[in-house]
Each structure stands twice: as C-alpha cells, then as structure tokens.
Amino acid sequence: MGDRISTGCWLVVLLASLVVGIVGCDDDEADPPSDATVDAVLDGAIDAAPPVCGDGVVNGDEDCDGDPQPCAQGERCGDDCRCVGICGDGQRVEGEQCEFDGDCAGEFEVCEDCVCRDVGCGELTCPGCCPAPGGPCLVADRGDARCGSGGAQCVACAATERCDDGVCVESPCNAENCADGCCAGDVCLLGDRDAQRCGSGGAACAPCEGGEDCVAGVCEPAAGCGRDSCIEGCCLPDGTCVTGDRDAQQCGAGGAQCAPCPAGQVCDAGFCREGCSPANCASGCCAPDGMCLVGDRNEQRCGTGGAACAPCGPGEICDGGVCIPLCDAEFCPDGCCQNGVCIQGDRDEQRCGTGGVACAPCGPDETCDGGVCTPLCDPEFCA
C-alpha cells in the first residue's frame, strides 16, 4: 500500500483532499488513506469526466464516435456522437426515394419514411378543392360550380353567390343578372371575348390555361395552327402563327412548322435561300439580315457589287450605289444639279447651268456657254 501511495502521491492527495481533507504526503503529518478511499475517489473522478466527442473512443453516454459501426441499420453517427436515423437528415442515399415532399414526382405524393406515397387529393396536396379523393386538384375560384380550398370537397355556389378565394359569398353580379356573361368582382362582363376573363352564367371570370381560347364562355383547346389558319406564315411549337419571312430562325409559309435556316442562309418569303453576296447581289448591297437591296435609292443603305449596305455621310446622296456630295451651291459651284447630281453645266444644251442651280435646257436658237444659255447668232457671234 505504501508503494501505491508514494507512486501517485500528488494525484491521490489532490483527489482525496476533496473528500477527506488530506493536504500532505508525509506519513508523519497524516494517516494515509485506505485502499477503499483511494479507489472511491479515483472512480468518482473518472465517472465525473465528460465524454469527448470525436476523440475516436466511445465514451460515457456516446453511442458512437465517427464510425457508424455501432449504430443500427438505417442509422448513422451524428455530430454529437449519437446514432440518428438516416431518413430525414437531408441527404438522399441509396435505398431512399425522397427526403422531402418535393422529391416526389406524383401530384399527390408525399415523402413518408423516405418513401414516396400517394395520399390522393386533400389538404396535404391541394391548395384548391377536390371533386373526388383521386383528384384532380382544382383552382378554387375558377368557377362557381367548383368552389373550395385547402383540399376540401368542391361545392357549387348558389345562383346569387360567387366563389371568392374558395368561399361562396353573396354577389351583386350573379347567375340571375349576368346569365350571358361572367362576373369580374361585382361587374358583369361578356365572358367569351377574352381568354383572360372567360366564363358564363354569372360565374366568376377566370383566365384560360395556356393553349386555350374562350369559346362561348368556356375554355377550350385553341384551334390548331395550320394551312387554313396560317396561310401566310408558319406555326411555332405552341401553335402560334407567325410571319415566317422575317427571321432565319423561324422560317416557313403556308401554315407549315417554322424551322431555322441553315447557316449562311436567309429566310425570303418563307423559304430559305443563300445569303447575300457579290455572286448574287452584283447590282445592289447586302443588308445585315442577308437580304440583297437596291443600293442606290436610300442614303441610309447605299452600296453596290454585293458589298455591305452603309449610310452616306452628311451632305451626301447615294448615286448608283456610291455616296457622292449632295448637289447645291456649296458642293457644285461650277455646275448645275440634276436629280441631286452635280453636272458640268456648260457642255450640254439640255442640262445647262452653273452655281449649283437646277440644270435646264436652252432654247432652240441657244447654246450653253459657261453654264449660261446664249443665242446661237447675234452681233457678237455673227458680225
């Protein structure tokens, strides 16, 4: 016993002093504690020490320490060294169909125990009302004949009521005074002229779904886009008829399906053809959309030989596909102007003038001299 006391003297003294008041190690100052006292103190100290999660050892009240091996099947070791269920921890693992309701694909499916289960149309799956347990879930205020909310059974409102946010309420606009239309609040509207406000018999006006038209107050699938309804254009996938000659990405005619033109081609009158180039636009210029334009009729798109159309500068006009100075006294001081073009006005009796004035023909017995019409024979010329 003496060896045991001397070996762990200070540890024993420290621990035992808490219980029996020992403050020294000298056998002369105090009697040594008994074996039972030392064992009790040591055991109490060990039991009082809190477990350390993450030290690699399963201590005290810990279920595990990083290694899931001690946990049961379907559990993992949590951050607090306790075994927790895998389902619901936000991490989908093999064998789980879901963690949250949004992971399930079915309209009426919810996630229970990490398995998607169909619970039908009801308060868990339908913000509107249910005509039957199997669905479908209906928008609660889309018609007075099917009113309700929170997944409750749909009900029909009375003739003088309307469905307001899933609740039947008395309405100044109702089936009795709006039999041929629908009610937008307290106002009766003709409910067959707007797909955004469709209805009849005094029911609440409601928008039709995408791809539907309002026909006689009832939402019905829109008439298909085709040869009869889109003869001058082409049809988009959603059934819309568009002008099929203005976009190389949606080209077509006669109600055909719109299609993109191959690279380098343009859409011309609904048909794809080679884009503008010097080979096919020798007498004009090429617009940004690939079309060949007559390049001498617009100062904003001037050019020739299949070059890119370009605007003329200030004081210029497009003549024969070339930008030239605009004809006036400033740009044509020594000639005359004809159709905006400056002409040397002293070489042609049909186009005579100077100083940028309009060219004019001389008389039968006149000639153009220095831009001025003068008699062919007079004392000066015929002395």
Major sheet description = 3 strands, mixed
Tell how many strands the DSSP assignment holds: 27
Structural class: mainly beta
Proportion of helical residues: under 10%
Order of helices and strands: HHHEEEEEEEEEEEEEEEEEEEEEEEEEEE
**Helix segment tally:** 3
Whole-number average pLDDT?
76
Summarize the structure.
The chain is mostly beta strands and 383 residues long.
Description of the molecule:
The chain is mainly beta and 383 residues long. The protein is built from 3 helices and 27 strands. The strands form 12 sheets. Strands 14-13-15 form a 3-stranded mixed β-sheet, with no helix packed on it. The chain has a 3-stranded mixed β-sheet with strand order 19-18-20, with no helix packed on it. The chain has a 3-stranded mixed β-sheet with strand order 24-23-25, with no helix packed on it. α2 (9-20) crosses α3 (35-48). The longest helix is centred in the N-terminal third of the chain and has 14 residues, at 35-48.
Topology:
Blueprint: H1 2-7, H2 9-20, H3 35-48, E1 75-77, E2 83-85, E3 109-112, E4 115-118, E5 129-130, E6 152-153, E7 161-164, E8 167-170, E9 182-184, E10 187-189, E11 212-215, E12 218-221, E13 234-235, E14 241-242, E15 256-257, E16 265-268, E17 271-274, E18 285-286, E19 292-293, E20 307-308, E21 316-319, E22 322-325, E23 336-338, E24 341-343, E25 357-358, E26 366-369, E27 372-375
Helix pairs in contact: 2-3
